Amino acid sequence: MRKSRRKPFIAIGAGVILLAILFFVLTGNGLWEGKEGSTNSVIEKKKVVFLTKSMDSSFWQSAYAGAGAASAEYNLDLVCEGPDGDGEEDYEAQNEMIDRAIREQVDALLFSAIDFEKNAEAIDRAAKAGIRIVVVDSPVNSEAVECYIGTNNYEAGCMAGEEVLGNPAENLNIGIVNFDKSTENGQLREKGFRDTVLKDDRASITASINVKSTITDAREGTERMLLDNPQINVIVTFNEWTTLGVGDAVEALGAGERTQVVAFDSNVKSIGMLEKGNVDALIVQNPYAMGYLGIEQINTLLNGQKPEKKETATSSILVTRENMYDDKSQKALFSFEEK
């Protein structure tokens, strides 16, 4: 009995010694560190918060997937968060989350601003506390931002305008449904659109409204605009939530056949609208790349290096019913399913 009871202890002791040797070899050669060039280790991961304008949209789910892939690659401790609910309006909740990140002494913040001005002071506080700041998608008015990654919003607006100018109608009576004026990316998209379409004598802006960045507000605002201006035969709108609201309004009023709708972003519902004819074209951004490249730039900063560029533009493509089943369009439309 004594002999049989000693074998497990001998095996365990040998195993402990082997594990200790293995640990020494791995850590001594840097094999437990992150991607080559990184100083982050498994034991002490750098903490990063990805704070977005909302959490429920397909756009941000795709961005989270990209950020998650990069954080795993660079061995960073990533938390993704944003205000609750459908819509992108609660800048105060964002500011509270920034202050919490300061208290928790995170190392970096990947951020998308709801309000260009009203988020700025909180971002300045975070930078003063030593947090590195990278912004994606929607800028904030702060000198503390070290890098911006996102769509060239002016050019995306121009792309929407060029699609409208392909409409053969004799007159283009345009209705614009934009989201909050305090969000910089929406304003740049609208400017690009206006600068493009108003070069054509056929085009006129019949009505222009700003709505809350929610489906309900966009639907109600679009319905009122169409009822007040029945001559509108083109509508343009500039983000995922307003796209869904505009599409719902066009369907409810039976206006799909007589109205060209050019919109932004993709999810299952907006793709269905494109198939049915309540939306005619989608400008599809690349949120996965925004999340991935944002974390990549944060890793660069945390390693004491400077990003090669202050601003990085991610791609956008135009998807219509005619090209929506092409491989390139399918990949863009369903990027929110990236893992």
Would you write up a description of this structure?
The longest helix has 27 residues, at about 1-30. A 6-stranded parallel β-sheet has the order 2-1-3-4-5-11, sandwiched between helices. A 6-stranded mixed β-sheet has the order 7-6-8-9-10-12, sandwiched between helices. Helix content is about 45%, strand content about 20%. With about 350 residues, the chain is of the alpha/beta class. It has 2 domains: about 45-150 and about 285-315, Response regulator (Rossmann fold, 3-Layer(aba) Sandwich); about 155-285, Rossmann fold. The protein has helices spanning about 1-30, 60-75, 90-105, 120-130, 155-165, 185-195, 215-230, 240-250, 270-275, 285-300, 325-335; strands at about 45-50, 75-80, 110, 130-135, 145-150, 170-180, 205-210, 235, 260-265, 280-285, 310-315, 315-320. Helix 2 (about 60-75) packs parallel to helix 10 and helix 7 crosses helix 8 (about 240-250). The protein is elongated, with a radius of gyration of 25 Å. The protein has 11 helices and 12 strands. GO terms for molecular function: carbohydrate binding. Belongs to the bacterial solute-binding protein 2 family. It is found in: Cell envelope. This is LacI family transcriptional regulator. Its main location: other.
